[in-house]
Amino acid sequence: MVELNRWILSGLLLVTLGSLGGCGQQQARKDRQSSAISASIAAKNAALKSQKVSRLEAENSSLKKAQQATKEASSSTATSTTTSREASNSANTNSAPAVVKLTNTQKEKINAAFLAWAIQQAKIGKMAVSDWYFDHGSAGHGDWFAQTPDGKVQVQDFGVPGEAAFPIHAIGGCVFYTAKDGTTGYDKLYTSSFATNYSTNMDFSAPVSKYLLGDNGVVYELKTGNGEPVSTTTGFGEYSNDGTTPETIRDSFSVSADQAAQAQLQKLLASYR
């Protein structure tokens, strides 16, 4: 009986040990499978990370290229704009104002309208103004003219050398001054004779400004007075009788800095362009 029990215990022990051995092998197998799965996941993650990094690098490279292209295009556009602006400015600087072909009647109409504007300006400035800006007594047969930065302006046409010889022609003009009798606005300066001229009512000790309207749309101005005697021939000269030699003029006109006057002449010429 004792032997039988020992034999049964031995068998049970063997079965138990065998069972335990089988469990250990299964656990080891599971551990190996788990490690393999972890390694596979890690490899996949690494591959995905590498792909993502490569994609980001490619996108960054494309973005940088696009930014560079945009910058270069912008720079090219700016350069082109600057060049065009410079060319436009150069063209404007080098091109002379276009002359407007006018009849004598049209000139008289424009001059009268400009004088009406000048009268109001004179009243504001408490000055007198007259349209007797130019005149002369006995003289030769040559044309009369004024000298300006844009060339000679014909103010009286006797055909010697004639209209075609001048780049600019006078539409009219006026003269601003301080009147001796205190007149402001329009003053009928010519009241007695040509000999007395401006001395009739012009105060030579004060500033005097002659305005000359060119058919190129520019107002020219001669500043004088301030102690200097002034007459209707001041600022003007005459050609010789054969039209070949212009008189040397002491006082030249300049482009007037009076922007209101420039704008007014442009406005009056607009319908004739």
Describe this structure in words.
The protein has two domains: 95 residues; 169 residues, no CATH class. Strand 6 and strand 7 form a beta hairpin. It contains three helices and nine strands. Strands 1, 2, 3, 4, 5, 6, 7, 8 and 9 form a nine-stranded mixed sheet that branches. By secondary structure, it is α+β, with helices and mostly antiparallel strands. It is elongated, with a radius of gyration of 50 Å.
Quick summary:
The chain is an alpha+beta fold and 273 residues long. The chain has three helices and nine strands.
Give a topology summary.
Elements lengths: L1 H93 L9 H21 L3 E3 L13 E5 L2 E6 L11 E10 L7 E2 L20 E8 L4 E7 L11 E2 L15 E2 L3 H11 L4
Parallel strand pairs: 1-5, 3-4
Antiparallel strand pairs: 1-4, 2-3, 2-8, 4-6, 6-7, 7-9
Helix pairs in contact: 2-3
Q: What's the Cα radius of gyration?
A: 50 Å
Head-to-tail CA distance between termini? 144 Å
Order of helices and strands: HHEEEEEEEEEH
Give a short account of the largest sheet.
9 strands, mixed
Key structural traits:
273 residues, alpha+beta, 2 domains, nine-stranded mixed beta sheet, 3 helices
